[in-house]
Amino acid sequence: MIQATRVAGAIQEIIRTERIGPGGRLPTEHALARRFRVSRPIVREAIQALKVLGVVESKPKVGLRVLPFDPEPLFNHLIARIRTDDERAELYEFRCLLEPAVLRLVARRAPREKLAELEALLRTPLPRGRAAVREGFARDIAFHEGLWKLAGNRFVWSLRSLLLKYFADIERQPGLRATEAVMRRTNAQHLAIVRALRAGDVRRAERELARNLGTFRPDGRSR
Q1: Which of 8, 65, 145, 155 is 20 to 30 Å from 192 at the Cα level?
Q2: Other C-beta atoms within 10 Å of 114: how many?
Q3: CB proximity list for 12: less than 8 A, separation 6 or greater
Q4: Which CATH number is correct for 2-69, 1.10.10.10, 3.40.50.10090, 3.40.50.740, 3.30.450.20?
Q5: Exposure string for 14-32, b = 16+ CB within 10 A, e = fewer
Q6: 10-residue block means of pLDDT along the chain (223 residues)?
Q7: Partners of 216 in the β-ladder
Q8: Rounded to whole angstroms, what are the CA distances from 10 to 54, 98, 117, 217, 222?
């Protein structure tokens, strides 16, 4: 395992120092094994680790190729390692620090028609009863993902599974007792954020966002 990790790092160093761009080919397994003086199974293990991270791909008759840069697989790989209440609390703090900055990027970069589309989604009345909860959760993800995409930053977008879908799973925990009233309030908060952005009032959008992020907390409570 230690050898495979070392080889994986060395392969990434080859990509960096030799400036092998997306689609560029890497040496064969046999050539890499000779270069690093390790067995081919170790090289295969290293390559598999890089595949998981989205760094390379291998295909028959094509060989080993470099994939376009995408940090999302690396961030997604962290989700399974978040286990403790302290880790969840710190990740929640990170999200609370990041999302106001996302709003500022959206205010600068988002086309007005895209914000109008997001507003139209949120203006649609929620159904009643448990259907309101299901629809509310779906809109929650659609709203935050929509904002993060409009931020126009690939690192921000790639964090969405770690910081959005991860917490969406927490919100669905039975102990939170998500009710129709809570989801209607959440939808109204989202709508207020978009309207503030459309009006060019980023500070008001940030205040509404702070209230929204406090609705569900990773300690299993809702406000």
Answers
A1: 155
A2: 15
A3: 50, 55
A4: 1.10.10.10
A5: ebeeeeeeeeeebeebeeb
A6: 91 95 94 95 95 90 91 84 88 93 96 96 93 90 94 93 79 68 93 97 96 77 52
A7: 222
A8: 16, 32, 46, 41, 47
